[in-house]
Amino acid sequence: MPLIEVTRERFSISSDPARLDVDAIHAFLSRSYWAKGISRELVERALANSICFGLYEDTRQVGFARVVTDRATFAYLCDVFVVEELRRQGLGSWLLDVVRSHPDLASLRRFLLATRDNHAFYRRFEFESLKFPERFLEIHRPDAVSDTPSSTDAPRAHGSTEVRFLEATLAPPSTAYITTADLRAQNAHPSDVPFEPKEVPSWPMGPMIQSPTSTRFVNEHVGVVRVRPLAESEGPLLRELRVGALRDSPHTFGEQLEDALNRPQHEWVDQARALTDPAGPRVFIAEVDEWPAGLVLAVDDPFDSEICRVGGMWVDPTKRRRRAGVCMLEAVRAWARERDKHRMRLWVHEDSPSARALYEAFGFKYTGARKRFPREPNRELLEMDRRVEMSPPPIPTEVGEEKTEEALDSLPSSALEVDSSGS
Fold this sequence. Notes:
It is a single chain. The chain has helices spanning 22-29, 40-48, 91-101, 119-123, 180-186, 235-248, 257-262, 265-274, 324-338, 353-361, 402-407, and strands spanning 5-8, 11-14, 51-57, 60-69, 74-82, 110-113, 156-158, 161-163, 168-169, 178-179, 208-210, 215-219, 223-229, 282-288, 291-300, 307-315, 343-349, 365-373, 376-387. It is of the alpha+beta class. The chain folds into two domains: 5-114, Aminopeptidase (3-Layer(aba) Sandwich), CATH 3.40.630; 193-407, Gcn5-related N-acetyltransferase (GNAT) (Aminopeptidase). The strands form four sheets. Strands 11-12-13-14-15-16-17-19-18 form a nine-stranded mixed sheet, with helices on both faces. It has a six-stranded mixed sheet with strand order 1-2-3-4-5-6, sandwiched between helices.
C-alpha cells in the first residue's frame, strides 16, 4: 500500500500508520457524538483495518481521517476530526484533499460517509445526498462501540443542572428542566428569562419589544409571541420540537421520525451546543404565551457568502394563526442582516400551498430552480429567494390581502433541510 506524506509550514499529513498517536485518537473519538465511549481496543482494531491519515503539528497529532475500503470500487470515510483550537484554518479541507488524492482512493466507483450536521463542508469535495436512497439498507447499532449503552430514560448531568429527557418541557437557560407532570402538579408555566424592553416601535402584528436576547410581538388578538435563539443548554428542547415537527409533518423533512427518536440524548445536547456557536448556524425558537411552539434554522450558504439559507421551519398546530411563523422569519432576516447577507433563500415543497403562501407573503419570489425531494423522488422542491435590506425596512401599515392573513401562520411544512438531526 503506498504511503503518502505532504507538508505545509509546520503541519504535515501522513498515511504512515507508525506515526499515529492512538491515545490522542482514542481520546477524541471517545468524546465524539458518533463514537462516544468507544474502547481503545476497538479503536486499535479499526485503525489496523483502514487507510488512516494523521494530521500533525510538528510531531503532535491534531487531526485524523480513516477510510474503510477494498481499494478497487468502494470506500467509506469516517472518524474525521481536527482539534478544536486549530479549526477554521483550512486544515480540514487540506486533510480531505489529501484523502481524495490517495492513489488507492482517487478512482473509486462509490465513496460514502455519514454526517450529522457537516453536509456543507463535504459537498465541497463532491459528496452529495444518495441518488437512490431506497436502494440502501443498514443494520445500525449505535451503542455497539460502548460498554455502557445510552438510555433515553436515564437523566444526564449537564454542568450542575440535571436534565430529565422523558417528556421534557423546556425551560429557559440556566433553569432546571422539569417534566410535564411536574408542571401540572405545580399548575405553573416555565419561568421567563429576565427581560428589559429596549424599544417599542409600531408593528402591524402589535408592538415589537426587543432585548439583547429576544424579540417579542404583542397583539391583543394573538397574545405574546417571543422569538429567541436556542440556548446552549437546550438540547432537550431541540429534541422536543424536532420530534413534534416530524410527528406532525412526517413527509416534509429530510429526517424520519424513527431516526430522531432513536438518536441518543447526548447527540441532542451536543447539537444544541454546536447551534449556539456565534460563527455557525443558528436555530430560533418561537414561544407563544411563554410556551415553545416552533423553530427555524438559519445557516450560511456554503457556496455564496452573501446568502442565508432558511430551513427546518415548523410551528405547533395548536399555536398556528398566532404569527409565530412570520416572527421567526423576521428573526432570521435580522440575523442575516447582522452577518451582512444580501439574500435569504429556501426550498419549499411544491405541494405545500400554505407554506408557499407564507413565504410569498413575506416577500419571497421563486427563482425557477427546482429539485427532487430525496426521500420521495416523485415530489419536487421549489427554490424561493428574497432580498435582505441592509437597514431595517419601513414599517408597513397593513398586513395585506385576506389570503395573506390566512397564510401567515398556518405553517405545516419546512424549507431547506440543512439538518443536523440530522436538523
